[in-house]
Amino acid sequence: MTKKFIIYSTPFFFLFGALSLFEPHIYRTVFASTSVDRLSGKDFTIIAHKGASGLAPENTMAAFKKALELNVDQIEMDARHTADEEIIIFHDQRLDRIARDTLGNRITGDVHNYTLQEIKQFDVGTWFDSQYKDERIPTLKEVLDLIDGQCKVLIEIKHMDHPHYHDFAEKLVEIVLQEKNGEDWIILQSYEPEYLDEVHELDPMIQTKALIVGEDSAPLLAFYIETRIHMGRAKESNRLKAINPHWETLSPRRVFQMHAKGYEVHAYPVNTRDDMIKMLNSGVDGIITDYPDIAIDLKKELMGMEI
Question: Is residue 234 over pLDDT 80?
């Protein structure tokens, strides 16, 4: 009987596993609603990804100023080291994708192989649009001084297996503490739990947030592993209050599970109105987007609807 049960039940187990694995895709393509009927009065957090990076070059002062003009709730950015161990705001490990010299030639190589003085010579705006040709890579301090508590800031701690990064968390904490009431509006986040642990040891008052399912992950499979790791650590430390999963890994059931564990859920990067509505209908608390203007308009629409 047991052998027959195993033989006959095996296909059902495989089917259940496949449905569970592809649940988010099935939800988005089959069941997710793009109607706002159930979202009347819905408030949600709007987080500008790399600044307003769909409207201006990512991680530049222009993008951060645009996000502030839109009055977003939070601004997300990425921190890296230069060769002389200055902290700058830049997403990629390498400069190739967006950095150009004064003649328009592509700059190649890792960010941490250039000094801050050299970095400041590079144009990181022309690739986006010629009107931004004078945009330069800003330092973290320059960006924080610009924002100055006007909204919350999410600083992603980039992981690098390089000597420059041995005291990265310590330097970030020092910069946060230089800002007026920095502990209230600056949040440090990372895929690497050891960075968050180190930040907490240096200053338990600084807010931290776990990132799960990164841009280089295989979202459907990584979700299971990374949520277990980060949410497990969060439960142990009792200090991680929100998590930012990739939006393609989410469904109403998964959002409900995270809420049941006490976490807010902010999905990234959600860049169209329809996808934002799908995520809000799934129950997320916030939207991380390259186009905060779309999210702002949607939020105004929902808040203006009769409740």
Answer: no
Distance, in Å, from the CA atom of 140 to the CA atom of 156, rounded to the nearest integer, reads: 11
Q: For 35-304, which CATH superfamily applies?
A: Phosphatidylinositol (PI) phosphodiesterase (3.20.20.190)
More confidently predicted of 294 and 102: 294
56 — pLDDT class (breaks 50, 70, 90): very high
Residue 82 has pLDDT above 90, yes or no: yes
